[in-house]
Amino acid sequence: MPRLSIKCTNLTYYYDDERGPALQGLDLSIPEGEWTAVIGPGGSGKSTLCQLLSGYLPRSGGGKREGGLELGGIDPATAEIAEIAERCGLVFQDPDAQLVQGTPQDEAAFGPENLRVPPPEIERRVEEALAAVNLEQRRHSPVRELSGGQRQRTAIAAVLALRPRIVVFDDASASLDPAAQGQFVQLCRKLHAEGRTLITASGRFDDAARSAERVIVLAGGRVLLDGPPQELLRKGRGLLAQLGLLPPWEGAAKAGPGLAAGPAVPAASAHMTPPGAAADSGSLLAVDRLSFAYAGAPLALHETSFAMKPGEWGIITGENGSGKTTLTRLLMGLLPVPIGAVFWQGQDMAGWRVRQRAAKIGYVFQQPEHQFVAHTVWDELIYGLGRKKGRGRELDSSERERAESLLLMAGLEGRRGASPYLLSQGEKKLLSIIAQFVHPKSLYILDEPTSGIDYGAADKILRLCREQAACGAAVLMITHDPALVEGEASFMLKLYRHKPAEYRRLASV
Amino acid sequence: METLSQSKRRNLSFTTLDIVLMAMLATANAVMTFYLTYINKMLNSLGGPVATSTIVGVYMVYGLLAYYIIRKPGTAAITYGIGGAIQCFVGTTYGIASAIVAALCYIVVAEAVFALTRYKRWGMGMMMFAGGAMVPLWFVCAANMFGYTAWSWQVLAVTLVMRLLSGIVLCGVLTKMLGDMLQRSGLLRRFAIGRKEAEHAPTIH
Amino acid sequence: MIAYQKQQSHLHRIDPLSKLVLLFCIALLVMRLHSSLGQVLLLCTVACMARWAAGMPWKKQAKALAVVAGFAVPYFLVTLLTVPGGQVLAQWGPLRFTLEALDTAGSVTLRMFTVFLSSYVFMFTTDPRDMVVSLTLRLRIPYRFAFGLSMALTFLPLLQEEGRSISAAHQVRGQGKPDGIRGKLEWGRTFAAAVMHNSLRRIQQTAGAMEAKGFGAYPDRTFLRTAMPVGKGRIIAIMAVALTAGLWWYTQNVNL
Ligand SMILES: Nc1ncnc2c1ncn2[C@@H]1O[C@H](COP(=O)(O)OP(=O)(O)OP(=O)(O)O)[C@@H](O)[C@H]1O
Ligand SMILES: Nc1ncnc2c1ncn2[C@@H]1O[C@H](COP(=O)(O)OP(=O)(O)OP(=O)(O)O)[C@@H](O)[C@H]1O
Ligand SMILES: [Mg+2]
Ligand SMILES: [Mg+2]
């Protein structure tokens, strides 16, 4: 078998728009069997590199590549499809972009089928791949009925079943729950032990990066640091922290709470939600034994209650598929709300239309693409701001100022004319969030705002939340890394298997 | 280095992107047919099959649009093929057999028309001609399948003229307009329609 | 939109291509028979087949046929009034009902019912994925093209979803469908453009992701899903063809 090393020589890549290069003069050589973590802040070019390796760029995504790239003797830009598919498997960052077959089983079988693997062998691989991501039970569910994390697992399984010798994970664990993230690192270890070349990209110096043999830090499309993780942590800690790749609590401390902190199965209901939350008259939003089932499916949310006062900051956590997104979609009226379960200042919200709710509640979707409505970043940001006069919108000076400052904060001021869809994943997320914070609302609901972005950007988001909470707005946030916010939030609700499993008041600041 | 004939062959065989586009257009057609059923019903109760003839052009748009965008021989065969097949599962009020026969009729005519012009002409006139040309063959088949033959020749003639007009305007003209609109969005750069534009661009100024 | 239901009826266990042959036989007979009586018999046969061979309850059949009724009734009237004939049954002023017209109208209307019901039975009993497998393994259509069907079927719910999600996005962002015709039209235009734009993006992504998993790498591929056994289907298809040919000959030469 030929040696499957990866070699970049002066690799430079331009997207189709007339901007500077997204990657610039990369010189890398990765020997076969090495586990390399590529980390860097949002928009630093990680996904671009991953997609170049798999040949997706420039083959399908367009753009212009300069310099050399070699993948065990072939150039992914010009090689035959079979040559690449047999060598290299890429899990894209956005699960929706790669799920094309309908069910996890079909998805996992798709690759091996194309490579003419005999059916009994495919069956074995599918089973193994689905087991590796804990998705056996959802084997035949339509993909569109899966939760965000379950889709990401499906995407991972689909590539595992291909058994490529080079495996590239582009931030593939971003929306996984802590237990699954731990499993993901285990999976990487196993793949590495099997002798596969492994590349994991992420926006943070996370557990995967710590377990890797080598870490490459990208910033602005260039390699900034390159070396074994321990060495980087020793020598480059300052720079890493400055780039936002280290968690804030690691500024000085040796080790923070690992990602897999906390038991996967919480002890059931020592402190359950105070019942009759609706009776609490001072509350802004009260949820009282809210249950919901999708058509033809068992309950996706079971008797959940909590209440929020103005200025409060709540966290919702829970494993993938436990009903978090369902809960917030209900609050927003995107799913039909039963009568007598959700109250706004004591008033039943059941009959409210989405638009009515939108006047009071700002909502950020789990998948940022789902909420884009405009063709440019700036239009996206100011959508709905100002009064419509004819076709043009006129912002008053304070609105404009706020929009500008938010844009600056998100680091998107240079991209105001770009299409929101052509941003990096982290940039998309930031845009979707600031586009809500630009409007004054009484409650902001954020569905996993900090997943897949670097700590620097996460900190900016938290600052926004803090500001709003100080002004009297409430914030409800779904997150898989509560460690980031626990210090400031007022309560945490944990869902387990579609039920509230734990409700904890936190010492708010 | 690949030779000219190699690159030409590569240009003429269908890429995955082409096939996905055709599938998407066929799907859009299926969805549209599904919702057009209501309009069709309304027209039908106003003026029977003669009135429904006014919109037959819309049902052919997807294949012609695919041809207009992809411009490779065989495009209509695959697009209408997928379109006909998917109607076996989504259903039309006229039945699966008619969906398949209609698709076959469109394939024969569209492939012939573009082959005759050697895939070189894509102007408005050509598209109108193609839209109109696809009508008669299917009309003859449909008349036999649904028993229109029982009508008097005047009614048949009126229906045919309606269908021809519908084919020319609602299929030909609409396809051209839709295609040009999509082309302006800049997302078709990787198809023939987008490349043509790029080739001409330097000569414009 | 997709009518397929997983069940264990006889027709569910027959391969899609044989069923298509059966379907075309029915379509041919429908074309061939010109009298109302013949059509009634045919419709009854198809209905019985739907009930006992496909396990489709009567109620479901009735519901399906009600969909076509909206077409069939006006169609019936138009034919009744336009077809020339000799035997006058009733006459009010210029309106003349002839026996021939009634017979033809009945036959063309029943035709629609038969055609629709038989198609519905096919949809009801056929898993689309089996069709893709049959097309490639039996008809030897290159799998990349046959997969167009499979992709189209995945896009189907996706397009609807896409529409719903774009609409949700606008509402969440504080602008739902506005009131007033002009506002609605403008909104519809934006909406359609957004759906189109997103679909085009998805086409690129899907194609790229499929190639990344080796789609199109070789001229053929394997299938995890095994092709349905064709033994029984082939017998039924041959019988259907023979029966159709026989009936055709009979109606042509013996009983016109
Ligand atoms: N399709 C595209 N067209 C144009 N520019 C793009 C496109 N995708 C990404 N970019 C830009 O290229 C740069 C690098 O993007 P890339 O997606 O590689 O970043 P990333 O490191 O993966 O970031 P993240 O952590 O947010 O995923 C960014 O500035 C981004 O805005
Ligand atoms: N449209 C749908 N139809 C049917 N079931 C659905 C649908 N959407 C979600 N579900 C199911 O409901 C359950 C809860 O999903 P939800 O999206 O709320 O999970 P989540 O807690 O947000 O998970 P994640 O952390 O992965 O985003 C899951 O089991 C999921 O499969
Ligand atoms: Mg990325
Ligand atoms: Mg979720």
TrEMBL record, chain A:
Domain ABC transporter residue range list? 6-245, 285-509
Q: Which PROSITE patterns match?
A: ABC_TRANSPORTER_1, ABC_TRANSPORTER_2
Topology in the membrane?
Answer: Peripheral membrane protein
Q: Which domain of life is it from?
A: Bacteria
What GO annotations for molecular function exist for this entry? ATP binding; ATP hydrolysis activity; ATPase-coupled transmembrane transporter activity
Q: Does the keyword Transmembrane apply?
A: no
Entry's InterPro entries? AAA+_ATPase (IPR003593), ABC_transporter-like_ATP-bd (IPR003439), ABC_transporter-like_CS (IPR017871), ABC_transpr_CbiO/EcfA_su (IPR015856), ECF_ABC_transporter_ATP-bd (IPR050095), P-loop_NTPase (IPR027417)
Family recorded in the similarity comment = Belongs to the ABC transporter superfamily.
Protein name stated in the entry:
HMP/thiamine import ATP-binding protein YkoD
Species: Paenibacillus azoreducens
- Taxonomic lineage of this organism? Bacteria, Bacillati, Bacillota, Bacilli, Bacillales
From TrEMBL, chain B:
Query: Which parts of the chain are coiled coil?
Result: none
Keyword annotations: Membrane, Transmembrane, Transmembrane helix
* Superkingdom of the organism of origin: Bacteria
Transmembrane regions? 12-38, 50-70, 77-94, 100-119, 126-147, 153-175
Tell me yes or no: is Endoplasmic reticulum among this UniProt entry's keywords: no
Say yes or no: keyword Transmembrane present: yes
**Pfam families under this entry?**
ABC_cobalt
InterPro entries from the xrefs?
A: ABC_thiamin-permease_prd (IPR017195)
Entry protein name: ABC transporter permease
TrEMBL record, chain C:
Q: Which InterPro entries match?
A: ABC/ECF_trnsptr_transmembrane (IPR003339)
- What membrane topology is given? Multi-pass membrane protein
Places the protein is found: Membrane
State the superkingdom: Bacteria
Q: Name one GO cellular component term.
A: plasma membrane
Tell me where the transmembrane regions lie.
20-53, 65-89, 101-121, 141-159, 235-251
> What UniProt keywords apply to this chain's record, in alphabetical order?
Membrane, Transmembrane, Transmembrane helix
Stated name of the protein: HMP/thiamine permease protein YkoC
Natural source organism: Paenibacillus azoreducens
